[in-house]
Amino acid sequence: MTRGARGPALRGERRAPLVFTPAAVARTLGRVKRYRCTTCGNLTRFDVTTTTRVRAFHHYTVGGELSVEEPQVLGEVVEAVECRWCGPSGSVEELDAEGTVSPPS
Ligand SMILES: [Zn+2]
Q1: Is the pLDDT of residue 7 over 60?
Q2: Could you tell me if residue 52 is inside a domain?
Q3: How many domains are contained in the chain?
Q4: Distance 29 CA to ligand 1 centre (A)
Q5: For residue range 34-59, what is the model confidence (pLDDT) as tens digits?
Q6: Has residue 74 been placed in a domain?
Q7: Residue 20, pLDDT above cutoff 90
């Protein structure tokens, strides 16, 4: 058995840092929400506030160093969506996943 011979992995470094990007969350939940600002027509830039429930494997060393692995997104609640350009004054609506709006090409 050759311990520590699994590629060029560095000690103390994880290949998958614990990052919950909205896209990753959406993939986990099986859908991607899209938005549109009806004030300025923006389809691509939004400040989205969410609450995400995550179950993960917390792995401690004897010394107490924690690494969090295998995150599973159990649910997500979107609390607020603001247009990046209009801010609170913008009016943002959620688009249907089936594509209520077809992107201009
Ligand atoms: Zn806007």
Answers
A1: no
A2: yes
A3: 1
A4: 27
A5: 999 999 999 999 999 989 898 999 99
A6: yes
A7: no
Kindly state whether residue 65 falls inside one of the protein's structural domains.
yes
Calculate how far, in angstroms, residue 63's C-alpha sits from the geometric centre of ligand 1.
50
Q: Which domain holds residue 80?
A: 22-95
Distance between Cα 104 and ligand 1 center (Å)? 17
Rounded CA-CA distance 76/38 in Å is 24
The residues placing their C-beta within 5 Å of ligand 1, an ion, are 37, 39-40, 42, 83, 85-86, 90
Q: What do you get for the CA distance between the two ends of the chain, in Å?
A: 57
CA distances (Å), origin 102, targets 32, 34, 40, 58, 98: 15, 12, 17, 42, 10
Distance of CA 92 from the midpoint of ligand 1 (Å): 7
> What is the CA(89)–ligand 1 centre distance, in A?
8
Structure tokens given for 90: 């913008």
Query: pLDDT by residue (tens digit) across 93-103?
Result: 998 765 555 45
